[in-house]
């Protein structure tokens, strides 16, 4: 079976001359949650817009479940649902009307039972007869999600889904995304909230300046790039790091009360044991210890800064 | 899914018609009211002094022109608003990302707009019959001109709706182009009544051909030959279709 989304050499230069995408390659397998992480203006929305048919590409190819997005756009687009970044909603239509409209627009026959379940899942059922303009921002966001899911897509794009969204809706959304995945729907979300990617994604792609600089399993990414700090609280403060321990690159903090050891969690685990033995030999007493691990945010900042340097 | 996505066409069409029904005051009552005023002013007040034009009583003579006046302005404003509003509100993304062809998008939006303006044209015709006795010599041609003109000017309106960058631009064309052309296009007079120079200038006004052809279908009298009227209407329609084709091919104002 072809991958749900295959992007090769995707390039976009806007008429202003701005190069939004510089030859992006990306393959997404069905059923995963993929987070596209990047700062504002990195090319996230452009990438999504090209796949959905909102922006014309200047180079490269895109297929959705094997269907080319140009030659076979009907088959490709019927599989895609898009929740845009902007809260662009109708005003005078009711929730039910707009969701039914979306389903028809994507060529699906009426299925009121499905739409009812969808609205109930999104806590919109009570509001089904209300005009959209009477709803709060959070509710409008839910309406956009309902519209995107109205035609039962296999690939759902969420462009900055939780920007300006309250905690409750964010939780609901995460729950919904997980449920969708269980039914085999692939979810691609863009975000600049690391927390979101960390919480949701199976794989993470980091995009900056129109280039996909990294695609990795979330766990592997965090392990590979994860800096760990071992913080040792000493019984007696030290004036300086003993000579015999110099090669470990230790650092004294908190007026000599804490000894900090930075290591790579994946490679050098054995060194921790060596260090502790050597500390004992050197007669340094340890009261307590703790470790901290870098978050995705730290990794991300490191990556993006590295790219700029 | 192959062939035409009729469900999508139906969805957009229904959506647009629902919008018209919500604003029934503005979309139906107001053209009917303004037409009635024209009848009172031109038909009753002035018409008593101008007995006949081309052997047709003046009150009856202006009916085809008045219907055309509403048909043109309504077609342009309905169709341009129909596509402009989703652009303005940002909801156009959904239509552009849907599995619909350009032809289907145009068919749905222009179809809905044309339906509205044809309905208004017929309502005005019915209103006119209350003021003056009407004869329609060629009902088939009358309806054909009504439908062809509505479609053509809805296509034109669609172009304006894609082109417009603000509500002002949306109003400018109907106000500054369509209305003057219609007034000067022989809605209220026969261009034969004009001095020769103005008559020649009038022949560059496309609305002359529409009004003339439409009037011919009522009374068998025309300023220009019916074939020329038909040809001009179809030619203008073709131009609009070509422009719309170019819009979608290039993505003009719809896709970056």
TrEMBL record, chain A:
Top-level taxonomic group = Bacteria
- List the keywords (alphabetical): ATP-binding, Nucleotide-binding, Transport
Note the Gene3D superfamilies from the entry: P-loop containing nucleotide triphosphate hydrolases
Alphabetical list of InterPro entries matching this protein = AAA+_ATPase (IPR003593), ABC_transporter-like_ATP-bd (IPR003439), ABC_transporter-like_CS (IPR017871), ABC_transporter_ATP-binding (IPR050763), P-loop_NTPase (IPR027417)
Q: Does the keyword Transferase apply?
A: no
Entry keyword Nucleotide-binding: yes
The segment(s) forming the ABC transporter domain are: 5-234
Q: Which Pfam families match?
A: ABC_tran (PF00005)
Name one molecular function that GO assigns to this entry: ATP binding
Q: Which family does it belong to?
A: Belongs to the ABC transporter superfamily.
Protein known as: Multidrug ABC transporter ATP-binding protein
Q: What is the lineage of its organism?
A: Bacteria, Pseudomonadati, Pseudomonadota, Alphaproteobacteria, Hyphomicrobiales
TrEMBL record, chain B:
The UniProt entry, under PROSITE patterns, shows: ABC_TM2 (PS51012)
Spell out where the chain crosses the membrane: 24-46, 58-85, 140-164, 170-189, 201-218, 224-248
Q: Name one Pfam family in it.
A: ABC2_membrane
Task: Give the way it sits in the membrane.
Answer: Multi-pass membrane protein
Q: Name one GO cellular component term.
A: ATP-binding cassette (ABC) transporter complex
User: Could you confirm whether the keyword Nucleotide-binding appears in this record?
Assistant: no
Give the protein's recorded name.
Answer: Transport permease protein
Origin organism of this chain? Methylopila jiangsuensis
Q: What is the lineage of its organism?
A: Bacteria, Pseudomonadati, Pseudomonadota, Alphaproteobacteria, Hyphomicrobiales
